[in-house]
Amino acid sequence: MPPLVRPAALVLAAALAVTGCGAEVTSPDGGDGRPKAGGHYPVTIENCGEKKTYDAAPERVVTNDVGITEIMFALGLEDHMAGYVMPDDKGDLAAVPWKDAYQKTTWLSKKQINKELALDARADLVFAGWNYGFNEGEGFTPAELEKVGIGSYLLTESCRNGRAKARGVMPPLEALYVDLRNLGTLFDVEDRAEALIATFQKQVAEAQAKALKGADRPRVFLYDAGRDRPLTSGAYAGPHDIITKAGGDHVMKDLKDSWTTVGWETVVERDPEVIVINDYGDVSAEQKRQFLKSYPPLANVSAIKHDRIVVLDYADLVESPRNPAAIASLAADLRKLKG
Hints:
- By secondary structure, the protein is of the alpha/beta class.
- The chain has two domains: 20-201, Rossmann fold (3-Layer(aba) Sandwich), CATH 3.40.50.1980; 211-338, Rossmann fold (3-Layer(aba) Sandwich), CATH 3.40.50.
- Helices cover 37% and strands 18% of the residues.
- The protein has 13 helices and 15 strands.
- The chain has helices spanning 8-19, 66-74, 99-104, 115-120, 142-147, 172-186, 190-210, 238-245, 264-270, 285-294, 302-305, 314-317, 323-338; strands spanning 4-5, 43-47, 50-54, 61-64, 81-85, 107-109, 125-130, 133-134, 151-154, 219-223, 231-233, 249-250, 259-261, 274-279, 309-313.
- It is globular.
- Mean pLDDT is 91; it is low at 18-31.
């Protein structure tokens, strides 16, 4: 059986077209992406436990990676962006609801974001996250940016939770909604944020209503990468809510972290019935599938024996506006596999 590949972006495009949310957005600001005049500012938001006050909306935001960039696009905030940083291994950007926003926004680099790039772009805010751009080992942190007068907004999925460098402080979909509301407040587009959240909540509820339940729920493992030790999702990364709300039993739900590594022996012990492959990078989804199928320790794992492998795009699985569509997509795949 070939891996199931479902274009979740098409599900998302359909949902946004029905609601009027997405690349084309109208709102009380007149639909031009600029904040309304008046007494909205200053505003205070809480981001990863830190309260920050802004006297005006940032005008030259630099985003890092596809999910973060598309959060801005989903809110219609491309006119507030100096550009984005993203490798070119994150799928077909021409097929997403925000293709026009991609075309009008500068792709600053396909390599790693850094302080020099932010300075060259004259950024007033960098929207990234821990291990989504910010990294002490590389010397690129919010504290370093603050020294040169550049603000930061941390992706909520990446918030550190006090256990060393473990990440995650709330359920993944809640993290998405928190960021939409925070950015809605910061850029004075609260109505847009609430409309998107309502659309996503409706989409998730409809998918859950059709999802497998009870004893029919298959055990599901998310495979990102890695041969010696697999990189996977814990309870605080997007796949946890995507798998759970799609009608699966996430086998790594007890890991109180976001993206993390485990041992293959743990995977074998938990015997997933379905494996979801995260499709991105230099190693293709088919190459990942062939590795899983040929790796001797996995030979007796149910998902491998029955060839139950699903493929989702990277942007479906990290925190992004594509998460609700990925739930609907995976729910349909799980029903098909169980049928």
